[in-house]
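Deviation from plan, reported transparently: acetyl coenzyme *A complex.
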Amino acid sequence: MELRMSTTAELMLNGRKWSLPIVEGTEKEHAINISSLRDQTGLITLDDGYANTGSCQSAITFIDGEQGILRYRGIPIEELAANSSFVEVAHLIIMGHLPTHEELRQFSDLLTENELLNEAMKYHFEGFPTTAHPMAILSSMINAASCFYPELLHEGGRSTFMVQAARLLSKVRTIAAFAYRKSRGLPIIYPKPDLKYTANFLHMMFSQPYQDYELKPEAVKALDLIFLLHADHEQNCSTATVRMVASSRANLFASAAAGVCALWGPLHGGANQAVLEMLQQIHDSGDDGSKFIAAAKDKNSGKRLMGFGHRVYKNYDPRAKIIKKACDDLLARLHISDPLLDIAKHLEAAALRDPYFVERKLYPNVDFYSGIIMRAIGIPLEMFTVVFAIGRMPGWIANYKEVMEAPTRIYRPRQVYTGAALRHYVPIKDRR
Ligand code: ACO
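Because the crystal trials were delayed, the predicted structure below was used instead.
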């Protein structure tokens, strides 16, 4: 018989009993609502890395980490990966439903209309040194783009939101490609209105003024799949950052720029670059991966098996399954044999039978194979996390929209202070 969850939780403290309501989600997820805890008891909760804290109620993405389930707006990621496209999924995530023919046409038209940057923005790119990481450029330029749309600061409304969302989604791809071209000293290539979203990105990255890049359908499809698989992932570090910034009522572009910064770190989106660097290092040292696995298990080595482990998935990351197959297919179709893929497969097999990884439920995550696909397409290492950021944009936009449509209190966590107790100011002449 199924146990019914109580509607309240009771907290015993200093001989008194407090009652806290239980909230239930669509998929029977339960949370103790502690919003009144401090008022009632004077206490707060402390939760390292927010691992047990629900920061919001959201209707966008469902994850069951124990069972390896990921759904966007209720639809399994496997069905979307097999049948949909990044732009259609972006509409699904942002608007909450799969678009009709007409809605998809309108959304695609909006993306095309907004693909160019204001010409003045070209000069901003000149100011960055060639050594600048494209994630730094991306976050700066998304913020800079907001300067050209003052209405961002004043307008809310559903219809204008769609324009702002399409602007951001479209321009981020142009900014990313321009950043890459500038970093290589290459002339900027403008988008082509007749190309679809992902193909246009590859065109802006790799075409030359005298010759268009040859778009290989399998490469376009693989990159579109990478975008789609990254499109949202509930309250991860960067999305929670976007919501945090949005809670102060900052504009969409400013909130997304903050998301880019959070994504950059190697424990988050930066992991896809770190995975390839790790595989290359293993290859260059002549190791088959065994030595690296031993180091990753040793806490003093400072090494981790990058692309392994996840805060939420304690079973195989469903995106990793899809991307591993896509990786095998792409390499076979393009007739590429990549020694780094062999090392990745060896690492995966070794880790999956190693008690250290098994006991800690550490499985490959989406980043483990995405880098090999990007390498096969010719995307340079420093652009890997940028590709992730382009893909994650629909999720950030949808989360921003949720915050704006049901404005929450400003995000403002508390702390347990562990610094000095009261002490008094000492004039500089008396200090030792
Ligand atoms: N290699 C070796 N050991 C690991 C790894 C790893 N990749 N990941 C976790 N562990 C160990 C930890 O050392 C810890 O061991 P302990 O219990 O003996 O102290 C245990 O597994 C639990 O790890 P936590 O760090 O507490 O897990 P957390 O949920 O905080 O971190 C994270 C998750 C950041 C993804 C972590 O697994 C990691 O660093 N992985 C490598 C980086 C990576 O691939 N990031 C991409 C994440 S997916 C994404 O952002 C798209």
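Residues 218 and 333 are 8 Å apart (CA to CA). We consider this an acceptable substitute for the interim report.
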